[in-house]
């Protein structure tokens, strides 16, 4: 999913329970511009195995209890798992999970991570491949930390160190990305090039080279992510399909099956996805 802690950090909100899970979000004083983060702890000792789905942010998961999370088909991760918005098919397994997950907004990635979003759209990487030894040191301190407040403070300090990158996202591309996200993937993509005085070919090329996917694919991922979050609530599959803008329930079914390997009904009935929806709703309310 470093410098010593400052003594004046604010206390994070009390963790909230969801079944056997505990979720926590940072207090306002720990918020990092361009980053949303959540802590997850499974007190039931349960196990899970899931495919890493695409999403509208770069995902970083740092295991705070050695061995609670591991990628299937690969070795251990020293710093944390990093996945772009459209990762190659990969699966994760977990047992008694205790981790922090971060979502990094794409325009903020070069300054915070030192890489472009497009560089991360392959197989998930180890954070140590991007941050070097700093990633391993951060994880070691997170394992030692006694509270969510301590963990969030450590992560905030780690991200306070600027990362050098010559890569920059064009203001036009960043604006288009924000419009796609704000419109929940339902923005008329064909209208965007004219807004910036660009040809369709130039817009398509610049967007894909900098974000890592085409504008159409980006809109699909944003819409899918919203549907996935809604499936973890009390809304029915038919209600989610209509609300998010799918042509019909079967369209939603095909897309969820394609990206997760599971049906919408299976997602909706899985407590793990309910916890996920609860956690990110809590984080974005800060």
From TrEMBL:
Q: Which InterPro entries match?
A: AraC_XylS_family_regulators, Homeodomain-like_sf, HTH_AraC
Q: Which Gene3D superfamilies match?
A: Homeodomain-like
SUPFAM superfamilies, A to Z: Homeodomain-like
* Molecular function per GO: DNA-binding transcription factor activity; sequence-specific DNA binding
Domain HTH araC/xylS-type, by residue range, is: 189-270
Tell me which domain of life the UniProt entry assigns to the organism this sequence originates from: Bacteria
Q: Region (Disordered) spans which residues?
A: 1-20
Q: Which UniProt keywords apply?
A: DNA-binding, Transcription, Transcription regulation
Report the PANTHER family cross-referenced here: BLL1074 PROTEIN (PTHR46796:SF15), HTH-TYPE TRANSCRIPTIONAL ACTIVATOR RHAS-RELATED (PTHR46796)
Record protein name field: AraC family transcriptional regulator
């Amino acid at each position: 999913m470093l410098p010593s802690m400052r003594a004046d950090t604010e206390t994070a909100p009390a963790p909230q329970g969801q079944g056997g899970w505990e979720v926590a979000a940072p207090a306002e004083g720990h918020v990092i511009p361009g980053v949303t983060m959540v802590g997850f702890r499974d007190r039931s000792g349960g196990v899970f195995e899931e495919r890493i789905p695409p999403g509208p942010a770069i995902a970083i998961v740092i295991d705070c209890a050695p061995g609670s999370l591991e990628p299937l088909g690969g070795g251990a991760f020293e710093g944390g798992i990093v996945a772009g918005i459209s990762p190659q098919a990969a699966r994760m397994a977990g047992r008694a999970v205790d981790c922090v997950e971060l979502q990094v907004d794409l325009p903020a990635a070069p300054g915070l991570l030192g890489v472009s979003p497009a560089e991360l759209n392959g197989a998930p990487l180890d954070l140590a491949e991007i941050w070097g030894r700093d990633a391993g040191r951060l994880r070691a301190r997170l394992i030692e930390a006694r509270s969510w407040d301590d963990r969030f403070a450590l992560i905030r300090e780690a991200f306070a160190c600027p990362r050098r990158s010559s890569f920059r996202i064009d203001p036009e591309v960043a604006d288009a990305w924000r419009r796609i996200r704000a419109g929940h993937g339902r923005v008329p993509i064909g209208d965007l090039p004219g807004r910036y005085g660009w040809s369709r070919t130039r817009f398509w090329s610049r967007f894909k080279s900098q974000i890592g996917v085409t504008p159409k694919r980006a809109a699909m991922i944003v819409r899918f992510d919203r549907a996935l979050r809604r499936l973890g609530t009390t809304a029915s599959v038919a209600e989610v399909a209509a609300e998010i803008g799918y042509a019909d329930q079967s369209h939603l079914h095909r897309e969820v099956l394609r990206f997760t390997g599971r049906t919408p009904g299976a997602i909706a009935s899985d407590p793990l996805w309910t916890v996920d929806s609860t956690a990110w709703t809590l984080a974005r309310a800060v």
